[in-house]
Amino acid sequence: MFAVTGITGNVGGEVARNLLAAGQPVRGVVRETRKGETWATRGCNIVEADINDAAGLTEAFKGAAGVFVLVPPNFDPSPDFREARAVAAVLRSAIDAARPGRVVYLSTIGAQATRSNLLTQHSIIEQVLGELSIPICFLRPAWFMENSSWDVAPAAKDGVFPSFLQPLDKPVPMVATADIGRVAAELIQTEWSGLRVVELEGPHRVTPEEIAATFADLLGRPVRTDAVPRETWESLFQSQGMKNPAPRIQMLDGFNEGWIEFESGEAGSRKGEVELRTVLQQLIERESRS
What we know:
The chain has 290 residues and is of the alpha/beta class. It has one domain: Rossmann fold (3-Layer(aba) Sandwich). 41% of the residues lie in helices and 17% in strands. The strands form three sheets. An eight-stranded parallel beta sheet has the order 3-2-1-4-5-6-10-12, sandwiched between helices. A two-stranded parallel ribbon has the order 7-9. α3 (54-61) crosses α4 (82-98) and α4 (82-98) packs parallel to α5 (120-129). The longest helix has 17 residues, at 82-98. The radius of gyration is 19 Å and the shape is globular. It starts with a strand and ends with a helix.
């Protein structure tokens, strides 16, 4: 049996779908049982546990051949990342007590970076989980192609793709959630010993200009790329409700300046199969249904 956290989300759902397709039994870990009803109808065993509930997670992970761990994103953490430190302690306690066969933790590109930024939350959790004496894999995916879901409306309505990724012709490592879920499901069914790191990106790196051009082709209208001026980021993020926008700004700087990168570089990363065009088409279709 394989336990999957975040099963109601995009990545966790992809992991579960791949495991079910392989004929594997799946235990979905959800914050509220009712949210897992759809997965229960697909044959999953649904258990209730919060990411901050050590006792609940311990029970959810017990008896599992493998556990997929996805921590809900926190885009506005405290300056000292206390939330990530608390989650790390809970996960370590639960995994150590439950002793599943292996763990795949969904981390991020740049988790090894020494400069503080939004992704440091994963660095903290990696460091703590890496001390466990069970097989654990840190799956480090690139920038999610699905982040462009926020860009569908301005591209369709105004013909503008506002980009925080700059320069606009700089290739950025990106990956589709379908590839993340597929690779995570493969890893969790594989036996290994000790600690391993798998870095994952799409078939090729993508520039903001390529995103705009693909939007234009799919929407059948011109779409230009606008670089959002860096000096406006702090006030913009604060106007959106962020209390501490510095980590997010530092993360964007890391991508733009190149110090957020795979530890093994582009040459050492595993390559996915799903192209940007496929993801943007899905996002446009989803937006049209909403």
